[in-house]
Every structure is written in C-alpha cells, then in structure tokens.
Structure prediction request, 234 residues.
Amino acid sequence: MEVKSKINTLFQGGLLLFSIAPSAIVFLVLLVAGTGFLWSIIPTLIILLAVQVTGQLYGRGIIRHPFILRVSFWTLKMMQPVLSMAAHTPEKMVIAMNNRKAISDCSRKFRGEETLILVPHCLQNHECSHRLTFNPESCERCGRCPIGDLLEIRSRFNTHFAIASGGTSAKRIVERIEPSLIVAVACPVDLSLGILDVHPVTTIGVLNEWRHGPCFDTWVNPAELEAALEMFLQ
Ligand code: SF4
Prediction:
C-alpha cells in the first residue's frame, strides 16, 4: 500500500512539475496585461488543478492513453538531477503504474496464441554458444540461465517467445507478431520505454535482476512470469 501511494505521488509530482511552467507564464502574462492579482491567479490554479485531475483520471483508468504517463515520466527524467532522485526512479514509476493499470483492467482473458513473452538477450549465460536471438529453440535447457525454464513456461501456456537484442529488435518482434498481450522482461530503461511505445497493447513488465551488473548474465524468476500468465490467460 505504501509503495502504491509512493508511485502515485511520484506520478502526480511529475505532472505538477510539468504544469508549473505554463501556469507561471499565464500568471505573469495576465498580471502584466493588468488583469489584477486575483484574475491572474485563478486561471493559474485552474491549469494546475486540470493537470492533476487528468492524472487522477489516468490512475483510475478513465483516461487510457499513456500520453499523461509520458508527460510525467519525461518531466521527472529532466528534473532527476535537480531532485537527486535515485537511479531509474522515473522508469520504475512507469513500470509500476503500467502494471497496476494492466492488472486493474484485466477483465479480458487472453489466449496463448495472442501472447508474447519477450526477454532480453542478456538473460542468456555469456558462455552459451547458441544464437538464441535467431532461434530460441536451440537452447539445450542446461540450467545455467533462466532461458530453459522460460521456454518450458512458453510451451505450457502455448505463447510466442522471443529474445530481443535491444529496443529496436524488440519493436520489430512486436510489429511482426502483433500480440494483444506482452509479458516483457528487461532492465528499467528498456522496459519503461518499451511500455510507452507499444500502447495500446496490454503489457506486463518484469524487471530483470542484475546479479553481475547491468546487461551481463542477468536473471529473472520464471515464477514471476508464470504468475502473470496465470492471471491474464484463459
Ligand atoms: S539454458 Fe539454454 S540459453 Fe541458457 S546457457 Fe543453457 S543452453 Fe544456453
């Protein structure tokens, strides 16, 4: 509950920061034009309030387009150094907001064939000689990395499965398969940008673990993907 409200505060905070500049400009223009303090401050407050209300409507699923999430995200990104925010805070806000919305909207159940499990190539053990981005089936399920277990889950739920070598490759895979549901594993940056990119496809984001630092022999708990598929699939 605490995490949920922290995420919401961050999201609304990004929107507040975004609305400060336009409302200040409106205030100054009206003041200079001689409308008086009261008639200058009222439109200013209306702009601030309207942006906050739009954020609330997005959080409640009444507005569905992620434009408002993008605005909050990019504002937080720009202000990150000034606010001394921890690394990847805006990215994690996008992922958490997206997952929350996807779960609260999950009245529709998806079929396996319209679902894509999309994972990054850095999950593959660096000593493995198989070129999985071209053919994931060449994995020998040796257990040195989570790919083997993810392929088992793919077979059980009868979904698509793809390994992306980067953001562009992930985009191409999504365009080729045209899934209705994506369960994506990636680092905070790729995951948040991917989520904002693939709208209106329902996406569940799972962060990979950096046991050896970023982009190298990363890890994901297959049970997390399994739980997401159980929740969304028929
Ligand atoms: S599980 Fe598959 S991908 Fe991972 S190291 Fe073994 S053979 Fe390679």
